[in-house]
Each structure stands twice: as structure tokens, then as C-alpha cells.
Write a structure and sequence with these properties.
The chain has helices at about 1-30, 30-35, 60-65, 70-80, 105-115, 135-150, 170-190, 200-205, 210, 235-245, 265-280, 305-310, 315-325; strands at about 40, 45, 55-60, 85-90, 120-125, 155-160, 195-200, 220-225, 250-255, 285-290. By secondary structure, the protein is α/β, with parallel strands linked by helices. It has a single domain, classed as Glycosidases (TIM Barrel), CATH 3.20.20. The protein has an 8-stranded parallel β-barrel. The radius of gyration is 20 Å and the shape is globular. It binds ligand IDC.
Length: about 325
């Protein structure tokens, strides 16, 4: 009799526990639970000192593909893709902030939506053809001051202060580090604890000088970017070495394609990279939320927001990324 009673009560209790746990896990992924983020060694951690990962998707050039991002699409990405972070790629050139400074209102709208949705949001000052971050340092100072003043009390905000320094003459010691020190102190005068991500030379792949000349800010991470069809074992081994030197890395952009954003989806190579990132608890953001005719885009060409809600309109890369995001870790 006793056994029957136990069995019966388990029948009723178990499904309820299971359900609670699932809700708990979902919530544990978001900002209200994790709060202000911090860094310990190579790990990103939440406010309780537990290791924590951000995983999500980056916009394409906000000026060109900004219409794909709104409260509803972000909510869908959170609820059915399981992302907990969205990256806003605000280009500086290529129709970006320098020519069209009003793009910042779009940035603010997306940040507000992400905060309402309890997500983390990365504000990316997307330098690219302007190889040297110092080219627009004055504009960067005023942009980040404005954003920091608006959101200094919100745990959701992450600042990415220069997408990809590049060009042979742009080096860490002379160019990128001094820029980072200026922008970090601009931000820290207003927001003393948010995570800041700093781009590294050669499109976020060269850490040689970084290792011997670190920034002093405690909540700064260093960006690694890779494209699975182009960057392979050699880069993985370089990064393994960098991690061994206790450098906290954030993959704020990676693509399943080659480095030009196109030319196929490299599933096997992408799997290898993601296994590597899993092993080191590294956060990642995929490039990109767009319906452009290029293989790194997660949506099929010219399908607008449809694919976000309906898998039939996802590209091969989009299907792959959605599946990977659904795996909890
Ligand atoms: C690419 C876009 C492509 C666009 C190009 C220039 O996918 O449609 O024409 O920028 O605006 C990066 C950059 C990112 C690139 C991406 C793919 O951060 O802006 O996007 N990439 O080339 N670094 C390495 C690859």
C-alpha cells in the first residue's frame, strides 16, 4: 500500500517539478537572474559568481538591415531560439553613424526592447573599413558617453568599443590599446561595472601583443572573431595558448561561412569551433541577422522577418544556428 501511495504521489509531483525546473532554467538564462556580469580568470560570471555564457545573434549593418529588429522579433529569438544576448552592429562607415548619426535612436529603441525582454544587449561600435579605431575616437567618446548615461544602472548593457581593428600598421601597443584606454575611461566615468569588449588587431585574431600588455580594467574582455570556412586549426591553437595565459575572451562575432560572409556553410568546421568554445565556457554571437544573399545570413534572401518565426524561411546557416542555440549549456 505504502509503495502504491509513493508511486501515485510521484506521478503527480514529478511532472510539476519538471515543469518548474524548466521555467527556472529559462529564467536563469536572462538578465533579471544573472544581473551585473563580472569576470573571473577567463570566465564570464553572473552576479552570484557562477560561470555564465551569453549566446546570441548579431545584426548586420544596422542602417541596412535594422528593420528586421524590433520587440517582436527579439522576443521570438529569445523564446524560440533561446538567445540571451543580441548584438547591435552599428557601423561607423558604410552608411553608419558617422554619416547618419541619427542611427543612434534605432540603437536606443533596440536596447529598450532588449531590456524589456530581460536580455543582454551588446552595443557594437562597428569599425571595419576605417581600420584604425582612432579615426573616429571623438565620435566614439560622445556616443559611448551618451549610451552610458542612459543605461548606467542597467545590468543588460555590454559595450563593444571597436569591432575589428585591421591593417598591417594597426597594432595593439600603439593604436588599439591607447584607444581602448580612452574609451574605457570615458565609459567608467559614468558606468563603473558593465562588461566592455575590446577588439583585437587583425580582425580580432592577433593576441601576441595583448598578452604582454593587458588593459588594467577588471571587467574588460578581448574579442575573438572567426569565420569557420577560413580560420581553422592554427587560430584555434593560438587561442588555446591565449586562454592558457588567462586572457578572458568573448566571441562577439563568428560566421559559418568564409571571412567574406559568403561562399558556403562550413558545418564540420563550425562544429569544431563550437566544441572548442564549449570546452572553455566562451560566449558567442553569430553573424548575422539578415536576409541578404550571402551564406552567413540566417534568413533566406529577401524573406524579411519570416524566417525568424518560420523555419521554412531560414537559410542553411540559420537552421544550423537555431539548433545550436537550442542546446543548453
Ligand atoms: C560583411 C557583410 C557583407 C558586407 C560587408 C561590408 O556580411 O554583407 O558587404 O560586411 O559591410 C567581419 C565584419 C563584418 C563582415 C563580416 C563578413 O565584422 O562587418 O560583414 N566579417 O565579411 N569580419 C570578418 C568577417
Amino acid at each position: 500500500m505504502k509503495r502504491i501511495i509513493i508511486a501515485l504521489s510521484l506521478l503527480f509531483v514529478l511532472p510539476i517539478c519538471g515543469c518548474d525546473k524548466e521555467e527556472q532554467i529559462e529564467k536563469n538564462n536572462l538578465a533579471s537572474y544573472n544581473g551585473d556580469l563580472q569576470i573571473s580568470g577567463i570566465n564570464l560570471q553572473n552576479q552570484y559568481g557562477e560561470n555564465f555564457r551569453l549566446k546570441g545573434i548579431s545584426s548586420h549593418n544596422l542602417y541596412w538591415f535594422g528593420d528586421l529588429i524590433n520587440y517582436n522579433t527579439l522576443m521570438e529569438l529569445r523564446d524560440n531560439w533561446n538567445i540571451n544576448a543580441f548584438r547591435i552592429a552599428m557601423y561607423t562607415e558604410e552608411d553608419g553613424y558617422i554619416k547618419n548619426p541619427n542611427i543612434k535612436y534605432k540603437v536606443v529603441n533596440i536596447i529598450n526592447a532588449a531590456i524589456k525582454l530581460d536580455m543582454y544587449v551588446i552595443i557594437d561600435w562597428h569599425i571595419l573599413s576605417d581600420n584604425n579605431p582612432n579615426t573616429y575616437i571623438e565620435e566614439a567618446k560622445s556616443f559611448f558617453s551618451e549610451i552610458a548615461s542612459l543605461y548606467k544602472d542597467k545590468p543588460n548593457i555590454i559595450y563593444e568599443i571597436c569591432n575589428e581593428p585591421n591593417g598591417e600598421d594597426i597594432i595593439w601597443n600603439n593604436d588599439v590599446k591607447p584607444y581602448a584606454e580612452t574609451i574605457i575611461s570615458t565609459i567608467r566615468a559614468i558606468d563603473d561595472d558593465a562588461i566592455i569588449i575590446v577588439g583585437t588587431p587583425n580582425y580580432c585574431q592577433d593576441f601576441d601583443e595583448v598578452i604582454t600588455n593587458l588593459l588594467s580594467d577588471k571587467n574588460t574582455m578581448y574579442a575573438l572573431h572567426f569565420y569557420a570556412g577560413t580560420h581553422k586549426d592554427e587560430l584555434i591553437e593560438h587561442i588555446r595558448f591565449v586562454l592558457g595565459a588567462n586572457i578572458p575572451i568573448f566571441v562577439s562575432e563568428w560566421g559559418t561561412s568564409t571571412a567574406n560572409g559568403n561562399d558556403g556553410v562550413f558545418f564540420e568546421e563550425s562544429n569544431k569551433w563550437l566544441d572548442f568554445l564549449d570546452a572553455y565556457n566562451i560566449s558567442w554571437i553569430n553573424w548575422s541577422l539578415s536576409d541578404k544573399n550571402e551564406s552567413s545570413a540566417i534568413l533566406q534572401n529577401n524573406t524579411g522577418t519570416l524566417g525568424i518565426f518560420d523555419e521554412n524561411y531560414l537559410s542553411d546557416s540559420g537552421k544550423y544556428i537555431k539548433n545550436k542555440l537550442k542546446i543548453k549549456s
